[in-house]
């Protein structure tokens, strides 16, 4: 820059204008309070400047290595592109007044023009520019340099372009023309700071793009509104109070205490992460639709005891609780959840699931990774997910409608689980307390509850034969269903008798009113059982169809009764005319085994060959150990027909001294044994051995007048 004059001045109260440049060389320039120095050129400071008035520079300020400047007045840069090039130690540049920028751009740099140089003012927190820096321009565009400011003010009608990394430790005044934030704007004062509201109606204008709060307490004042369009960061040493309205954008990470009070309102980001306490004291925390909010392991989400301490989880939003979520207000009616929302308790440590009443029910609920308890009844509008977790409801109830209950592994709800089934469609399968406790309804009740207590003695419990799991069914309204009850390997008592087995498990209806009574449930003939044995990390189950609230005694489960799983061997009774090997012939839906006692009374059972009665071709599993005893009753058509096909011809009871065949039926007419009867008509014959067959029993007891017809080989006794 050309110089037409070099002026060395010491001014107390004066006005100087029209100079082409001023150089202070080893001298002291003092500008008094009422003085104005107007410099049409550069200011070279190689001495000391003390400004209490106003210095207007239409050029550049150069501060030499040994120079100093103390400003308690105003230094104004008016050049379109102005600079303060500083080589002096930063402690020697003191601004307690105002630095004013009216041009389109201003740079604070070191002597070489490097904005990141060691002596550049405001390059970091240690070189922060003191006092007030004010950018004011009437039109066009004005760029705000990325600096660490103490106080920053924007004014004038010009659009402000606020560069990434701009930081304010004190006050920030955002006024005048439109403001466009290019990146991070930082409030980083150690002392309490009030956040400047930015709530533009158009995206990208008068809204923070990224906002960082650090180093000290922050507050958004009552009545103020702020939008952060993209990323919010609140660092651990910046506890923040929200008394106004604050809307977060795509991402928020909050590592300090956040308090929403005095009617404050926070709308969370698309992705929000809390790692410290969030106190909703007297305000509203709104989780926007489709967003995810994480309350991390170290965090606490706390709603105070006030109707005005509000939380709402929006449509398809997910609230993930890894830490603690508490609500001190009554029945928690101040927390509401959209039907399509999800609250996810996924902490590995024990967690308490907050109660939710029917008027403020969870949308969907997930429990994962550990033990959970509840602090009251938990109502759901839709689905329940229990993954690698247990929910212990204690004396309370988990209440669902007709949503999905999804479980992984041996996860369970321990306690009462109720479903409101008024709108449920017949034929639908509903999971209850675990993945293998299912009800498929032919007709639905209004409400049906299962209270499932693992490792708990049911009514009429026998440790030698029963699964130690208490399952109590309660219902409102008539119903009929296929019921599956799941159990775990830990429910199997060590005291089980050797003859007790999982594959024999069947349903017993148990009650202690007015006295203890267990009744075998046989709703269909034969009962349609499905079973799976429990193993480590594999839940077993017993399933039976045709049970309900009405009908014959052996198919009804009255409200309030237990469903008991019993694995002992009862007398296996024939319930249909059919082949011995056909499960449909027997009341437990299985072929007799060597350990079984068998009763045939009023039915014709054939062994070893096929009849038109059931056209069953599968051969007997235990031809030489059919059972331990067989009793042929005295009712009409009671018969055991022993024949053979090409595959087998010799049949026997278990060869043991206690094995016996008892025959009580007296045939009304002789049985034709010339050849095996293959028709579908019942045979009234007692015990019949056809010519092609052999039948052996250690003992044979025949009642007076009872019928035994042998046309083959009948052996009695042990070899």
Structure in words:
It is built from no helices and 66 strands. With 719 residues, it is mostly beta strands. The strands form 7 sheets. The protein has a 38-stranded mixed sheet that branches. β49 and β50 (517-520) form a beta hairpin. The chain is rod-shaped.
Q: How far is the first residue's CA from the last residue's CA?
A: 129 Å
The largest pleated sheet is described as: 38 strands, mixed
Helix count from the secondary structure assignment: 0
Low-confidence stretches are: 1-15
Question: What's the rounded overall pLDDT mean?
Answer: 94
Q: Quaternary status of these chains?
A: single chain
Label the overall shape. Answer: rod-shaped
Helix content: under 10%
Compute the CA-based radius of gyration. Answer: 44 Å
Structure summary, number of beta strands = 66
DSSP strand content: over 45%
Helix/strand structural class: mainly beta
Please give the structural blueprint.
Layout: E1 15-31, E2 36-51, E3 54-57, E4 60-63, E5 68-71, E6 74-77, E7 81-86, E8 93-95, E9 98-101, E10 105-110, E11 129-136, E12 141-144, E13 148-155, E14 159-162, E15 166-168, E16 172-174, E17 179-181, E18 184-187, E19 193-194, E20 208-213, E21 218-220, E22 225-234, E23 240-242, E24 245-247, E25 251-254, E26 258-260, E27 264-267, E28 271-274, E29 277-280, E30 283-287, E31 292-295, E32 300-303, E33 309-313, E34 318-321, E35 324-327, E36 335-337, E37 342-345, E38 351-353, E39 364-374, E40 378-379, E41 384-400, E42 405-407, E43 412-420, E44 429-431, E45 438-443, E46 447-454, E47 469-476, E48 480-487, E49 506-511, E50 517-520, E51 529-532, E52 540-548, E53 561-566, E54 572-573, E55 578-579, E56 597-600, E57 604-607, E58 629-632, E59 639-642, E60 650-652, E61 660-663, E62 686-689, E63 694-697, E64 700-702, E65 708-710, E66 713-716
Parallel strand pairs: 1-2, 2-3, 2-4, 2-5, 3-6, 4-7, 5-8, 6-9, 7-10, 9-11, 11-13, 12-14, 13-15, 13-16, 14-17, 15-18, 18-20, 19-21, 20-22, 21-23, 22-24, 22-25, 23-26, 24-27, 25-28, 26-29, 27-30, 28-31, 29-32, 30-33, 31-34, 32-35, 33-36, 34-37, 37-39, 38-39, 39-41, 40-41, 41-42, 41-43, ...
Antiparallel strand pairs: 43-46, 44-45, 45-48, 46-47, 47-53, 48-52, 49-50, 49-53, 51-52
